[in-house]
C-alpha cells in the first residue's frame, strides 16, 4: 500500500489544511455548547464549501424551495426501508435544490431523524442566504448537505476537517501502533467499499502494541458513491492522518463524502449495528394483493407498450434515413444532455466572455480558443470554445465532459459545465489565475517567483493529481499529455492538472493500451508510446519525470546549449548525475535550497524516464519516495537516446499539441521499480 509506509518514520506529507474557524464562529460554538443540548452541537460546518454556489435572496424562489426540501428530507419513514440515508431534490432550473442526509451506521432511526432535524434548523441559521452548506452534527451522528448543484453520486472530498479525541494524548510505541492502525483501517476501507447502495459502513477493533490497548475503528461513505469512490475518499483521509493527527491516540477526519475515525479510550460505536439492514418481510396477504395489482397493470399497460414500440420503430427508421449533420448531437451526447446540472446557457456564456472578444482570449490551440469570462453572479470562468473544423473537436468534448466532470481533486482543474447549443461545443472550467507552469519556469524573470519550496510543493501536487487519475478515480485514467503548459497554478501556486482531451480510460485490471494515432507532445512522450503507440500509466510516469527535471533545472527539454550544439535535458541530467556534478542541473536562480530534496527529486526524475517500462516506478511509489527521505531509491538506468529518438519521430515536433486551457484500484506491484533496494541510498550525495 502506498500510504502504509507514510506512518512509519518521519514524513513530510503535504496536505491541504482545513479552513480555519473564524473568531466569531468559535464564540458561537462556545455559546451554543453552553445553551443547547448535546444533540444540537455541530461538529464541523462549511457555508458555500465549493465557493461557486453564491447566495440567495430571502423569500426568493430558491429560499422557498430549500425550506420545502429540508422539511421533507426525512419523510420516508417506512421501517423496512430505513438505512440512514436520504436524497431529495426540489425545484426547477437555477432554483433547483439538492440535499443529502446521512446518519452514522449505528444510529437508530428516531435518533437519526432527531439529529437531521436539529441540523436543518441550525445549519440554515449558521449559513443564512448561502446556497450550499454541509455539516457533520452531534459528534458525527449525522451529515447534512444541501446545494444548488447535483451532489448525489458525486465524490466530494473537500473541504475537510479533523479533530483529536480525549485529552490529545499521543501513543508511546508509535511504529507498532501505526502498523496496527493501518491494518485495521485497510480492512475496514475494503469492507465499506464493498457495501451496496443502501450502506457503506464498517467497524472493528484490534489489540494494539504490547496487548494492553484496544484500537477501535469506524469508516463510512455515502452509499450513493461507487466502491471505487468510497475507497478513494477514505484513502485520502488515511493519507492526511500523518499531517494532522500523527501518533494521536484518537482522531477523526470528516469529509462531505466519508468519515474515518479511530480511538483507544472508549468504544464510540455500537458493535451490534455493523450488519446489513433487515430485508423487508413477506406475507401471503401482501403477495396475493400484489399479484392482483400486477394482473390489472398488465392488462392496462400491454396495449400502451405495443403502441410505444411501433412509434419507436418508426422514429428509428426515420432517423436512420436522415443524413447526419456536422456537430449534430450523437449517441454519446444523450448521456451528456441528461446532466442538466452541468449545462450552461449559451447566451450566458456569450455575455460572460463579451461575445468571445479578443480582449478575453487566454490562449489558442489545435482544438480551439480559451476565453476568460465572468458570470452574472461574479464568478470567474475559463471557456474553451472548440473549433468547428477540428477533426478532434467532438472527441475532446466527449472526453472532457464525461470524464472530467466527475473528477474531484485539489490538483485537477475543475470542469464546471458545458454548452452544446447553436452547434457550439463549449467547456466551462474554473478560472485559475496564475497561468501555467511553463510561464514561470522557462522565463528568466518570472522563474524567480518560484523558490525551491514552491517548486518542491508543485512536484508533490502534480504527483498527487496523477495518483488520483491512476488509482483513486472511478476508472484508471491515462492523461497522455502531461507537460508544463498543462499544469496551471492557482493564487497560492498550487498545481492543477488540466486538458483531458487526450485522456484515455482503462478498466480496473487493464495495464496497457494501443492506438493508431499518437497524440500529445513528443518532448514528453515515453518512447514506447511515441514509436509503437503503446500507452499505460507508465507513459504518464515518463512525462512526469521530464516535468520534474524541467522544474529543477528551469530549462526546457531541448534547451541545453554547448556553443552551437544543443543537448537534450534528459541526457544532460544523466551525464551530470553520473559524473557527480548535479549542481550543473539545478536552476541557477535557486538559493537556500535543500540539497537532500534537490538530489532526491533529480533521482526520482531519472527513475521515471528509464526506457524500460517495467523499471519505472508507479506514481504511488513516487509519492512515497517524495515524502519519505528514509526510503532508499533504486539505481536508474540510462534514459532513451534523444538523438536516436529525434531521428525516429521528427525533431521537436508535436502531434495534436495545443495550449493549456485555464482551467486506488491499484496497479500490480510487479511493474514497479523497487523502492527499497540499497544500491544507491539517497543519503549519498552523488551516485557511484
Automatic annotation (TrEMBL):
Main location: membrane
Residue numbers spanned by region Disordered: 635-688
GO biological process, any: response to oxidative stress
SMART domains: S_TKc
Signal peptide region: none
Keyword DNA repair attached: no
Membrane topology: Single-pass membrane protein
InterPro entries, sorted: GNK2 (IPR002902), GNK2_sf (IPR038408), Kinase-like_dom_sf (IPR011009), Prot_kinase_dom (IPR000719), Protein_kinase_ATP_BS (IPR017441), Ser/Thr_kinase_AS (IPR008271)
Segments of skewed composition (Basic and acidic residues): 658-667
GO cellular component, one term: plasma membrane
Glycoprotein is among the record's keywords: yes
GO molecular function terms attached to this record: ATP binding; protein serine/threonine kinase activity
Biased segments, Polar residues type: 668-681
Protein known as: Uncharacterized protein
Keywords from the UniProt entry: ATP-binding, Glycoprotein, Kinase, Membrane, Nucleotide-binding, Phosphoprotein, Receptor, Repeat, Serine/threonine-protein kinase, Signal, Transferase, Transmembrane, Transmembrane helix
Transmembrane segments: 296-318
